[in-house]
Amino acid sequence: MAEQMTQLVHDLRNPVGAVSMAIELLQGPFAEHLAALPEPARDQVHTTLGALAESSSQLRHLVEDLTRLGAAACGQITVARAVAAKRPVVPLEPPATFTPKTSILGLRDLLGRLEILTVTRSSLPALLAVDCAGDVQVEVNGPELLRALSNLVENAIEASAAAAPSRDPWTVWIRVRDQDNTVCIDVSNLGHAPPDEVMRWLEAASPPAAPAPASSKAESGLHGVGLPIVRRVAEQCGGRLVARHRDGTTVMTLQLPAIVGSRAEAS
């Protein structure tokens, strides 16, 4: 199975690379031809290309993750085969903990990209109301943070739709604020409170003693991994994910360390 996954990841690189190259051509050499399109087609093409570019970036990031997982799994199979054949086993070096490469990014730009992804990819009609005063900066891995925020927004839209099916489109509020040298990104929606087991899991120390709560959605095999991804991204940056519910509003907050001193000046 691990060898098949490694081959699959290898084969994925070609179409992902081809899609990325096509998008770069459309945004580069062919940009002047697209700019000559009449309205509203020009804006629609621009928005669609922006969403495709973000999706392509996320695909490349996910392929890199799969490559690392495949290499680790193949190493384990090699050891298992050696044991089964009663051959000497060469001790493997313990796998290093992978830490995504980070850079200093402005949240205003990243949230603009999140809006494009939400409008073009959400299966439910939704609006994002973004409040980001100034260009707040954080030191993060951009694709990872965008992936985390996309998961929070998707959960918020689905929770809003479940609580008020007749309200269309559903609005999710995103607010960026400073709190005690911490950058807080609040993702808020109207609806029912999260289940108690989810709240307890979020309050537990990291790493949590128990696995993340199972998803209650019909396609549970495709759900239930969103919050663990968000929590992992936050904690890899030295932050955390917290939640609160009051007066019919749920707020999921990504808390990230603020950039202070020389690092902020250097950016």
Can you walk through the features of this model?
This protein is an alpha+beta fold. Helices cover 51% and strands 18% of the residues. The protein is built from eight helices and seven strands, in the order H-H-H-E-H-E-E-H-E-E-H-H-E-E-H. The strands form two sheets. Strands 2-4-5-7-6 form a five-stranded mixed sheet. Strand 4 and strand 5 form a beta hairpin. Helix 1 packs antiparallel against helix 3 and helix 5 runs antiparallel to helix 7. About 6% of the residues have low confidence.
As residue ranges, the low-confidence spans are: 89-96, 218-224
Shape: globular
Kindly report the spatial arrangement of strands forming the biggest sheet.
Answer: 2-4-5-7-6
SSE ordering: HHHEHEEHEEHHEEH
Largest sheet: 5 strands, mixed
- Report the mean per-residue pLDDT as an integer: 79
C-alpha end-to-end distance: 44 Å
Secondary-structure-derived class: alpha+beta
Number of contiguous helices? 8
Percent range for β-strand residues: 15-25%
Radius of gyration: 21 Å
Strand segment count = 7
**What percent of residues adopt helix (DSSP H or I)?**
40-55%
